[in-house]
Hints:
The structure is a homodimer.
Chain A: E1 15-22, E2 28-34, H1 43-49, E3 53-58, H2 60-76, E4 80-85, H3 95-107, E5 115-120, H4 122-134, E6 140-145, H5 148-152, E7 159-164, E8 167-174, E9 179-182, H6 192-209, H7 211-226, H8 233-252, H9 272-278, H10 285-302, H11 308-320, H12 332-345, E10 352-357, E11 360-364, H13 372-391
Parallel strand pairs in A: 2-9, 3-4, 3-5, 5-6, 6-9
Antiparallel strand pairs in A: 1-2, 7-8, 10-11
Helix pairs in contact in A: 3-4, 6-7, 6-8, 6-10, 7-8, 7-11, 9-10, 9-12, 10-11, 10-13
Amino acid sequence: MESLTGYKEKPCAASDVVFRMFCSQHKGYTVYASERILEPDDPTFAEMLRGRKVLLVTTPTVARLYGSLVNDLAERQSLSVKTLILPCRENMKSLELVGDICSAALACELDRKGLLVALGGGVCSDLVTLAASLIRRGINYIRVPTTLIGQVDAGVGIKGAINFGGKKSFLGAFYPPEAVLIDPTFLQTLPVAHLRYGMAEIIKIALICDAELFSLVADHSARLLRSGFQDPFACSRRVLTLAAARMLEELQANPYEDQSYKRLVDLGHTFSPAIEAASSYAFHHGEAVAIDLAMSATISAELGLLAEAERETIIAALIAAGLPIFTELVSEQLCLKALRDIALHRAGSMNLVIPVGIGRAIFLEHEDELPLAVLRRSLKRLAQESREMENAESAFCAYG
Amino acid sequence: MESLTGYKEKPCAASDVVFRMFCSQHKGYTVYASERILEPDDPTFAEMLRGRKVLLVTTPTVARLYGSLVNDLAERQSLSVKTLILPCRENMKSLELVGDICSAALACELDRKGLLVALGGGVCSDLVTLAASLIRRGINYIRVPTTLIGQVDAGVGIKGAINFGGKKSFLGAFYPPEAVLIDPTFLQTLPVAHLRYGMAEIIKIALICDAELFSLVADHSARLLRSGFQDPFACSRRVLTLAAARMLEELQANPYEDQSYKRLVDLGHTFSPAIEAASSYAFHHGEAVAIDLAMSATISAELGLLAEAERETIIAALIAAGLPIFTELVSEQLCLKALRDIALHRAGSMNLVIPVGIGRAIFLEHEDELPLAVLRRSLKRLAQESREMENAESAFCAYG
């Protein structure tokens, strides 16, 4: 695979360094992109596991699709790999499942040099991150995200969280992995809906800081979605490595979230938690983010900070990716409550991120920077556009 | 209280800075010594809690002795403090009890600026450290150790651990507190046996790096033990602050134990885990450490590295503190197995710490530096001395 982000180094054959993350004085890790890491003769993944006791945690779906490849790889390369299959659903993200991983680690006698591997989506990664942080006061682990969101968004970062006592993400840890391996061929088997959710996060990061990435996604989303993100090939790989690298650049400045409550990657993440909750989580996170992006762009345009043509481009990109731009659940009340709630998490400031160009975003720090009339006009406009689209049997459901 | 370690700074009235610990780029904390922090008019503790939601975790014994003082302080100073009483016994150090703290934190709506307080011994501190590291991906906590070991040894550090699946300390975290408050008046109510266990750790740290501390303990241990560590007053306070400061100096270089497996504070901690286990934990950790110290000193003397007179001084100090210097459980086999086991935890090296003077210690890195004949002579000698002591109804049980 050619290097798409300009890095030349080849620590493992056929793999590219996407990013080197530095989290603190002693901890850092590398994110690699590599094709077909489960092929029995591919050295990339195998070399990371060689000579270590490994507990690989995965999901029933991934085990069904890739379990035999994992077993073949372990056998062919004489690796010591035990596999634990966990029901990695959002509502199962519990301390009990973390305990299950710890029990399995104890049963296969993982020592301080042992290794956990998270082969799956966000929930699998969350559980493994937390278990790795606890076992023997912290052992190494590797993230191998198999979803698009996992490969381009939080999955390449250092956070893990579980739900507790009915409270989402109440317990967790900031705990850097030893490495992240992005293998785009996993996306071939990902349901198209999940590809769309990932697209929302890619559009988010592109809007913040990368116009080239935005164009790639906007121009090719239909083919990417139809092909399980394999076609056009060069575009697919460049989108993935750019998106992951840009996300990591943004995280780099504040990996433990103790330096600032102004994070550009919060674009699309101010109204979306309220939308998810209001839908009783019928809306997926990625869909809620898409609606939030449409709102943020519209607010920016209504404030005169984003050119109308650029707003149109953003809305068109969301629609082309098969993402929603509005829902009737989004009321003025919901928005105001979301802004108040989010301020509690951002040390009292609203810090609403809005795009002011393709690849450039700013903060609206305080409530008075967002007049109620602007919010009302923005909601009305999106509701109108959304209705028109539905009437025209729009692209909303084109890939359903 | 006069400053005993030369620090002048007074961040809180009537409290002294014992040590400032730096754990990583962003994290650090201060260890304070302060008298009677639960007095309703004392500002030290109260100022740390003011304006924050606080969950104080403590033990049934500490609650019985000091619960009303905590309540009076909270009321008099208008503090928001909820108390959780947990059965903090070694065999209860479980993920379930950590979960109990998290549930209580959720019930009293601790936010990201909320605070946990560990008011108790090592087990309480372990549980709170782990809960604080998990809640909302890490909230602040304060350690208020009420035992001598807690005030001079690991209790002033950053580690927490729980037992899991029958395995001691299998899960845990390195997670720095916001502050440590050492209040020597808590020791007035500590059983004398627990004072002795703390003495073993003080003698350990003194042997590594502080001849003055060693003399203070060796000369005054009887009075210190009889008085609940209150008399001689100046000696008591100097012993406590010196011991804590020296321990922290040693931890400072390698707080996350990822820099080196050669730690001088492992003096007394090579044979002792095997002794504790062989006694089915009838021997307390502090007693096992004392026996290990006697063995290490004797091995050093037999190797010609420690003067015989200094060895006598060390053995006498242990005896004066009412600590054992030998047990029939210590066989040649036990010692050899302990050395092999410990090498697994020290990256393959034995790294046996032995004193070569009062306040100076070195490592025996490899097995061939400890000839079997030397080990045998050392064990024989201690067995003989121990028998003579028992026959003479020695000081072994003087404070029993």
